[in-house]
């Protein structure tokens, strides 16, 4: 069976879809899993062993997308995140089984509409995604490994050794990474100066190495951290593909960030995380917790009220200092 899974939005959202594609492949290895993704996630999707084909949604034209879908002879589709274009394209492509949440006007183009009411946050995003697989295979096993992506040890060591040699980091040190940026999808975050203040708690501690990581377009954050003059801290602008970055951070001891794509990336490869969420149900860790084991997740809710936020920051400082 050729099964299309659509999750064509941001990095973190796509990673929450990986368990669904994994269980569909495990249910029947002969299933051909076709992922429809945004251009950003193309290389990452292509590196997943349980994804057989990647369709990149890189056009505003419904007809161009229809042609791409028809070329794959798709038997069924599961759309985890829908918009009118992808819904209409699947209808016009003649996909017989079209499954999606019963939300938005786009639902009229699906013939299997599942009521989920994700706004009630009765489960996490990746769990809602998994539930849609049951609409296709009611007896499917929804369990998946953690980490869901296992990097070959030689590849992992090569990436890490090149990194520590370049930045003259002792192999004995544990790397604590701070990622102050986000792609606009997080509802709460510390300022770059607050991240610097948290990082100072590790500077000078012999067993740890502080690393700040930055993605594309985060030059202002890079400059701000550089100007702070943190002694011995490494400032790293990610190079290569998303999977290259994931391979590197899989060796880190802790990844500290807001709830953004890089947090989900760290969780995908089994790196322990300390993650900051907005203190609201829709943006909370209850909805956006990662696909990693809960024992390596340290999820924190930043209060929206300013005075409580300041008090909470002092609490976080104390907790990190005791790490």
What are the salient characteristics of this protein?
323 residues, 2 domains, 12 strands, Rossmann fold, single chain, six-stranded parallel beta sheet, alpha/beta
Strand order of the largest sheet: 3-2-1-4-5-6
CATH fold assignment of the largest domain: Rossmann fold
Number of helices: 13
Could you name the ranges where pLDDT drops below 50 across 5 or more consecutive residues? none
Strand content: 15-25%
Number of separate structural domains: 2
The structural class is alpha/beta
- In the CATH hierarchy, what is the superfamily of the largest domain? Glycogen Phosphorylase B
Looking at the overall shape, the CATH architecture of the largest domain is 3-Layer(aba) Sandwich
Notes on the protein architecture:
The protein has 323 residues and is α/β, with parallel strands linked by helices. It folds into two domains: 2-136, Glycogen Phosphorylase B (Rossmann fold); 153-321, 3-Layer(aba) Sandwich (Rossmann fold), CATH 3.40.50. It has helices at residues 11-15, 18-27, 42-46, 62-70, 84-92, 125-136, 153-166, 192-200, 219-228, 242-249, 261-268, 285-288, 306-321, and strands at residues 2-6, 32-37, 53-56, 76-79, 97-101, 112-114, 174-179, 208-214, 234-237, 254-258, 273-278, 297-302. The strands form two sheets. Strands 3-2-1-4-5-6 form a six-stranded parallel β-sheet, sandwiched between helices. The protein is globular. The model has no long low-confidence stretch (mean pLDDT 95).
